[in-house]
Amino acid sequence: MPTTPPLPATSREWHLLRRPSGWPVPEDFALVEVAVPQPADGQVLVRNSHLSVDPYMRGRMNSAKSYAAPYALGEPMQGGAVGVAVASRADGIAVGDHVLHFGGWREYAVVDAGQAVRVDPEAAPASTYLGVLGMPGLTAYAGLLRVASFKEGDAVFVSGAAGAVGGEVGQIARLKGASRVVGSAGTDEKVRLLTQEYGFDAAFNYKNGPVAEQLRAAAPDGIDVYFDNVGGEHLEAALDSLNVGGRIAVCGMISVYNDTEPAPGPRNLARLIQTRGRIEGFLVGDHYDLQPRFVEEVGPWVASGRLKYRETVVEGIENNVEAFLGVLRGDNTGKMIVRL
Questions:
Q1: CATH classification of 135-285, choosing from 2.60.40.10, 3.40.50.1820, 3.40.50.2000, 3.40.50.720?
Q2: C-alpha to C-alpha distance for 320 and 328, rounded to whole angstroms
């Protein structure tokens, strides 16, 4: 019977030292050594194996009120993580269980048992519960099917389509009978991934010319659904190409996250009047009731290879900040994961 290795006396965790102005820099963060915490009644101690870094984390570094509380200065940051329970004072989670939780950006985390979900690393790799079968995957599923009201025959455009969310949006649309799936990405290599591996009908590098022109060429009959991960020029282009009754689901606007001044709004919002279109922002946290259906439907697609995914893996907690900055730069293909 395998034995659990002894616990170290100390653990490392990332703290936010100051609130970034514009693009974050490494000096905004500190990797701090602390004593390994001990669980109280109803809690488990988890040794993290995989950490998630995501674009939304940039907003939590600001002091402004948002849908999630800002990161506290001088305190451990938070994020999705998968790890192994190494001590437990809670019913339902035993030492050795693998769990998904929100105590990321650290090597060891004490988690309330009610905030931890057991996962099976035999059914799928641990990292997938942070990506294709985790929060990004549910974001794609809920945003496309519920928020954007996708229906068979729709033409779909996805920005940031080589990211963890965007790549899954396009593939779910294809598997559910989209008439055309178009994606944008920031490198020619990512464009080839979208068309040659993910099955997009067309894709383009938004750096190669005006987005509106490239979108019209890729979707000459217009689009019925736009899944927005980027905002800015992409949103204007989608409005230009929107068909009557078109729907826009706004998941993210990474193009403006590091702006120090408010970004100008789309200049062509009047297109919503002409098309009788709809634009709606959403948060995945409002749609966790879809989780069972999502896992039931998407899990077999992933297992069979019908829905493909990529991960960009960075090794070591000491590189957590660089991995996060890489997400903001678009360095990742698919989900960015830090492996401890």
A1: 3.40.50.720
A2: 13
* Residue in the block written with tokens 């974050």: 24
The pairing of strands 155-158 and 180-185 is parallel
Q: What is the largest CA-CA distance in the chain?
A: 68
Which is nearest to 254 in space by CA: 328, 202, 182? 328
Interval 277-303: pLDDT, tens: 999 999 999 999 998 899 899 999 999
| Second CATH level (architecture) for the domain 10-130+309-339 | Alpha-Beta Complex (3.90)
The residues of the chain scoring below 70 in pLDDT are 1-5
User: How far is residue 312's CA from residue 317's CA, in Å, rounded to a whole number?
Assistant: 15
Report whether 68 contacts 8 (CB < 8 A): no
The residue behind tokens 């192994």 is: 84
Structure tokens at 226: 């736009």
Nearest to 42 by CA among 84, 98, 89: 89
Start-to-end Cα distance in the chain: 24
Tokens of 5: 């290795």
- At 296, give phi and psi (nearest 5°): -65, -40
**Pairing relationship of beta strands 43-52 and 335-339 according to DSSP bridges:** antiparallel
Structure tokens at 74: 């001088």
The H or E element that residue 321 is part of is helix 320-329
